Amino acid sequence: MKIKVNEVELDVTPGTSVIDAVFAAGHDVPYFCSQEYMSPIGACRMCLAKIGAPRKDRATNDWILDEETGEPKIFWFPNPMATCTTQVMEGMVVDTISKDVKKAQNAMVEFTLVNHPLDCPTCDKGGACELQDRAYEYGSGESRFVFDKRHQEKHHALSELITLDRERCIHCKRCVRYFEEVPGDEVLDFIERGGHTYIGTLEDGLPSPFTGNITDICPVGALLDTTSRFRGRNWEYHHTDTTSLDDPSGAALRIDTRTGRIERIKAGLNDDVNKTWIDDGTRFGHEYADAEDRITRPMVRRDGTLVETTWADAAREIAERIAGMDGTRIGIALRGDATLEEGVAAKALADHLGSGRLDTAPRPAASVLPDGAAATLRDVATSDALFVVGDPTEEAGIVDLRIKDALKGVEPAPLFPHGPAIADLRLKERMPRKREILTICAPYRTDLMKHAGQAHVPPATSMVDLLHALAERASATVDGGTPSGAWDDALGMTAAEADALITRMRSSTRGVMIWSAFVSNDPRADEAARTFAKSVGAKTLILGPMANTAGLERISVLPSHDRYDYASMFTPETKALFLASLDPAVDPKVADRLRELDLLVVHAAFPTATSALADVVLPAVTGYEKDGTTLNVEGRLLPVRAAPVEAGTATDFTGVVKQLGEAFGTRLEGRSVKSARRVLRKLLDVDAAELPTTGQPLPPVRGKASGARAVREYARATGDALIVPSMVRVEHLDRNPHLRAERGDAALRAHPATLHAHGLTSGDVVTLPIGGIPRQLRVTASEGVPEGLWLAPTLPEQPVGLYDANLAAMVRERSATAEVA
Amino acid sequence: MIELNTIRPYFEDKPDVLDEILGRYPEYGRRSAVMPLLWEVQRHERYVSEARIVEIAEIVGLTATEVRGVMSFYSTYHGEPVGKYHLQVCSTLSCKLAGSDEMCDHLEDSLGLVPGETDTEGLFSLQKVECLGSCTTAPVLQVNDTYYERVTRDELDALLDALRRGEMPTPKRAREGDNAQLGAAPLAGEAFEAGTAADAALADAEAAEPENPEGGAA
Amino acid sequence: MSGAVADKPDTITSRHDPRFEVTLYKYVGVEGAHTLDAYLAHGGYGAAKKAFGMEPSEVVDLVKASGLRGRGGAGFPAGVKWSFMPPVDGRQRFVVCNADESEPGSCKDRYLMEDDPHQLLEGMMIAGYAIGATKGVLYIRGEYYHAYERLRDAIEEARQRGYLGENVMDSGFDFDVILHRGAGAYICGEETALMNSFEGLRANPRLKPPFPAQAGVYGLPTTINNVTTLASAVHIIEKGADWYAAMGTDDSKGIHHVQISGAVNRPGVFEVPMGITYREIIFDLAGGPKGPAKAFIPGGTSCPLFPFDDEHLDLPMEYAAVAKAGSMMGTGGLIVIPEDQCIVDAMYNVTRFYAHESCGKCTPCREGVSTWLPKMFQKLLAGLGTPEDVDLMEDMVSNLRGTAFCPLADACAWPVQTSLKYFRNEYEHLAQHGTPLHPRKDRWQS
Predict the structure, then answer these.
(1) Any CB–CB contact under 8 A between A820 and chain B?
(2) Residues A580 and A537 in one domain
(3) Are C393 and C420 in contact, with CB atoms under 8 Å apart?
(4) Does B152 touch chain A (CB under 8 A)?
(5) Which one-letter DSSP state was computed for residue A586?
(6) What strands, in cross-sheet order, belong to the sheet with A628-631?
(7) What subunits touch chain A, counting only 3 or more CB pairs under 8 A?
(8) Which residue of B has its CA nearest to A197?
(9) Is C308 on the interface with B (CB under 8 A)?
(10) A445: burial class by Cβ within 10 Å (0-12, 13-18, 19+)?
(11) Measured between CB atoms, which of C207, C366, C396 is closest to A194?
């Protein structure tokens, strides 16, 4: 429909808010309470404008005409209107610049500043503050408010991660609405009313995995990221727009650095992927990159001690020691968050050495690539029937949020030239959620289950059988057939529930099935899941264990033979190993084996149990410091860009291959990001250097996905310890003090009855060998864990799945009661 | 948190009360029960402690934060205990024009309290409140849930004496004009039923028991 | 304006008119009138029975024809509001009674609920039948405990004897009432805030649209009316639309309840025909001002005030005439301000009320009404003000007008704005001399 903003005439879609029309017309109105992807509420009154519209004569249905001009007469609303909560109408006229409007806007700035302190010079938001900008643009420049401003707490720790300055709050309600509308965790609310209103919680912190986003959307310096408070001014920061390598969702990040240090991470905008949200693990888990003990220079072992040296020297040492070695006895392993470029480099190195022992870890036993096209995150967000096997909140937080989008049932709005809709009038506070479209199945009670219409917690040992039974039942009923054979309710779902699920998925047109390593680690479970999805006509989304597991599989960073997989690298057949960012020595048996190697080269950012055994240690960059490309869960290629972090001579794996090539006297493909991208262009038909920040979908592989199968099946059918995914990377926890303080130590979760049976109390710290790896964990009681089962967070060396816990060998390091005393 | 473990849940032994309150609302409107549940607790404990907020949140399926957000919005829920007699002086325009400022001064002097305070015995709390809807019978003093309308100095003194003795006097009838035919004599001084039966019952019960500001803790 | 008596000799616009009869308040103040038996004894629930014999749309049309307008303050035609309900689609529908009477100067609903609760329940029942709502919500302000008890008992009694519940009075119509107590928040008188409050939320007003008829209580179709609006429906059904429309003026028909307080000799609630002049109300019904008066607020403190002069005293009490003169009929809560009352002090009192009651949702109300404006009054009253402060207050008040999310900020701005218009000299006197033109005096009768 046609409308006019000031003198600009434009066409807008019916349903558009006036504020978006104003921005689309290239004009501006200030606003504080509206927020992309959230409901408009008209609270701050900053976006006032004069609005008029023509009217139709009820009797004739013709426009009422202005007698003088003969044009449709404009009837003005008597009061200025909030443009964020007003919908466009045919022929509407919007005035944002006349004297009356300016007076109203000026007055709103003045009211907003009544209780806002003048501490911009010491405020972390200074220079990047919406209020500061708007006060400058729309305010009068001086204050007529001569009284004492409201004095309130200035350093209130809402949690270990978020500090609230109550004086600065302008009550826009973005944070309060955010918690209800986005993660659905109502842990923050307004307290009191009128001029006494403030935000607060009674929850003992902010128990939600997605709290940090409120620091991004706060229009003032009221809500601050505690990890970055007082660390720098906004104009001093260097911004790097990149992609998260913390999990496979591929969320857009903005890394703010200053003098070679990461000061904070904020969410970036990627409408198709993470919108403007990231999880707390991703946001606050960066402190480790600046830890004191970073490895910044290569080291070689001389007389039993690692001593610093140059890259050239270290490379020469390696070249000399593997010269003449049987290439098939050399293994190379990357972690699953390596970039595609690093994968190309590793492949080039393996080819040069004549080794087929190339792998990534952790890598599930089954492929993480879908058969055909994956469901996109947009498919998830617009799905009308979702079946989730696993714990997406911990595995890929953005998937959790996109599932919650689907529960609202609002189609994503198209982007405006100015970005996402500032005020999408279809979004409301406290929208009803269509919980019934979501079914979740996991071997313990997951956070997302409280939003699900159907939640099933089958015994961990029957997950595979349950999937099988579901696949069989779905297959049998494809053409309206009747299920044959008996159904065993003990699998964790009744026959009626199974049938309801199958019917619901099958009758939907936008069904999506989501699964993760709980399934992928067992080829039989994987096959069952694929069969089920196919027979009910659902698209699939497979969550890999690490950020780029799927991408590395896609470009075949894989062993040439099943027997050459990662696990096989710790057999006596192997003589030399290149391990990038992996720490298999946490398993004492593996450590013994590593000691017997002729050569152990470790590429790592920090000292580890494995680097302590290495012959050569090469300094590695973290995921924040790489240039490269990653493939996210939906098959979207996304650019990873290096933030300027001081890390000495550390490089990514392409740098390792460059140095080794020089020592070998050859130029290996993948010896730089640029060189690796030439290979990628051939492999994927994409120029990775040209990727936009929001990435681009990679066409799927035709036919059935195939990947080498791992010999070692992580998911076992039995065991009393379940390794579970964790958005907070346990391997970095000690170097992430704020995150650790908020989320706690790595937890050993068990049902209170289980703890009682073993004489344990919440808070005890124990060392428990799980699957041969001694894990130091803090005991936590949780009703959500089935009795008899122990839950521990995953490590790169200990993928999710069932293991045997050696309870007899459990050692109590500290008891909770002793600590209190 | 310690409080949570040591205080018995208020509704633990009152399933009938809980069922009645929850039963007033449709299943999809369970959240509506927040206000009556807060009233129920406050009526018996004179305030709503954090432990009770947590309990109510669990009953209706909300976070404690939300219940606190709701409770703190309203001016008549108390997060701190008030005295046995909560004296609320309406101070809005009609009452002001009928002398409520002076009435409040008189109460401050008589009780030695400033509005917002409770005496050390926990007998009286004094509060200035906004319009109680007794404008034509101003000034009005609300004691707990009972209105004393068109209060005079002498009546106020007598009322305070009675309260000190633990008696809630029956309010006088003070409505002129309401259904009076033009020129007819105003209705005044008619007998009025006991202020509120529940108030009286509470006053009796409390008179019999020692002060227990922690409510159900015993 | 529409000098009703002259133009239409048939209409009743004075309580002196012998044809006028007190109706809604007939049993208010009568001992024992609150019981079901007493109500039935004078024909109670007869109107509902009569309504059940009509089509719901006929009931709506009848109320439309009567000219009944909302008595909660806004004056929206009640029958028209009822007709906004969407077609019956199987969803639960609600009729809500707004008994959160909180406008300073108003108390008509309290007495009716205390003394004649069944009249209100019958009114709700009729409205429910007309709009197809089988559930009523009666939201009563928390302080009205005595009225709450009366209503609670009345509902229980009605349920037990088949006047509420399934198949009311064997009519085939189900109707029950949820009685819900507020807890001290003026903003709950705003219909959408009331619905939030009822749902157990913080009582912030909601965005409109959607209007209650589309998405009200629990997001379901809802009609919300004031206590005396609903009670009026009983008598309109019983006596007919013509009877009701025969009182008042073209613009404003029927009965209203004037609640006079402040400096008059006989404050009270008076049932009057619309179109009655303020002079008749103040001088004849309320016994005249107690001493010289300088201003009166016609409909509760949210309304712009009028100077106490012939021009304004002779205004007929009707929506259009009062609006044209610059104020509102509001709830009919008429407050007479005496000559010797400092207007600045009085307006601070009013401002303080709105400051206390601001919900805090929107900026001008939270920071202007609830924070800045009272501070300006305090400064002035403490003798620390300057003439510039008076200008600043005037400008600030104009900035509050029409900019806030809901009418609460306007409600505060209006009386202050008009006080500055008519009594600016008192503000200036305070600013110049540091002392009020009219010092405080003891107003407490002993």
Answers:
(1) no
(2) no
(3) yes
(4) no
(5) G
(6) A628-631, A636-640, A696-697
(7) B, C
(8) B73
(9) no
(10) middle
(11) C366
Question: Does residue A147 belong to the interface with chain C, where contact is any CB pair within 8 Å?
Answer: yes
A89/C contact by beta carbon, under 8 A: no
Tell whether the model's pLDDT for residue C210 goes beyond 90.
Answer: yes
What CATH number is associated with residue C420? 1.20.1440.230
Q: Under an 8 A CB cutoff, do B91 and C203 touch?
A: no
Strand segments (E) across C82-168:
94-99, 135-140
**Distance separating alpha carbons of residues A338 and A334, to the nearest angstrom:** 6
Provide the pairing of β-strand B141-143 with B85-90.
antiparallel
Domain boundary among C190, C223, C245: C245
Q: Biggest alpha carbon distance in chain C?
A: 72
**What CATH number is given to the structural domain containing A753?**
2.40.40.20
Mutate to test the interface with A, among C199, C366, C370, C394 (most CBs of A within 10 A): C366
B65, A190: Cβ pair inside 8 Å? no
Decide if pLDDT at B197 tops 50.
no
Q: Is the residue at C273 inside a domain?
A: yes
Contact by Cβ (8 Å): A342, A653: yes
The domain containing residue A531 runs over which residues?
A: 381-411+438-541
Residue A714 lies inside a defined structural domain of this protein:
no
State whether residue B50 sits within 8 Å of chain A by CB: yes
**Mutation to test the A interface, candidates C403, C405, C414, most A Cβ within 10 Å:** C403
B29 close contact with A: CB closer than 8 A: no
A307: its two tokens: 């001593």
Q: Which of A290, A311, A342 is the last residue of a domain?
A: A290
pLDDT in tens, A349-383: 999 999 999 999 999 989 999 998 889 999 999 99
Domain assignment present for residue C6? The answer is no
Using alpha carbons, list the distances in angstroms from residue A779 to A40, A196, A393, A766.
43, 41, 21, 7
Residues 393-422 of C with CB under 8 A from B: none
Torsion of Cα atoms, A497 then A501 then A503 then A509, to 10°: 160
Identify whether residues C108 and C58 lie together within a single domain: yes
Whether residues A387 and A313 fall in one domain = no
Contact call for C403 and A79, based on CB within 8 A: yes
C299: domain range? 255-338
Measure the CA–CA gap between A332 and A657, rounded to whole angstroms.
12
Neighbours of B140 (CB within 10 A): 28
ipTM computed for the complex? 0.95
Model-level pTM?
0.94
Q: Quick one: A172 and A282 in the same domain?
A: yes
User: Hey, is the C-beta of A433 within 8 angstroms of any chain B C-beta?
Assistant: no
Assigned token pair, A178 = 């955010």
Q: Are residues C200 and C134 in the same domain?
A: yes
**Which architecture characterizes domain B2-73 according to CATH?**
Orthogonal Bundle (1.10)
Interface membership of B64 toward A (CB under 8 Å): yes
Cβ distance C269 to B175 less than 8 Å, yes or no, reads: yes
The string of pLDDT tens digits covering residues C222-254 is: 999 999 999 999 999 999 999 999 999 999 999
Nearest in space to A191 (alpha carbons), one of C100, C199, B79: B79
Q: Is the minimum CB–CB distance between B76 and chain A shorter than 8 Å?
A: no
Tokens representing residue A209 in the block: 């995995």
Residues A500, A534 within the same domain: yes
Between the CA of residue A628 and those of A255, A343, A690, B106, C25, what are the distances in Å? Answer: 16, 10, 11, 79, 82
Q: Which residues in chain C are contacts of B137 at CB distance < 8 A?
A: 107, 267
Q: Which residues of C touch A199 (CB under 8 A)?
A: none
Q: Looking at chain C from residue 135 to 174, which residues have their Cβ under 8 Å from any Cβ of chain B?
A: 141-146, 149
Give the pLDDT of residue A605: 98
State CA C131 to chain mean position distance: 22
Other Cβ atoms within 10 Å of C214 Cβ, number = 15
CATH of the structural domain B85-210, one choice from 3.30.2170.10, 1.20.1530.20, 3.40.50.720, 3.40.30.10? 3.40.30.10
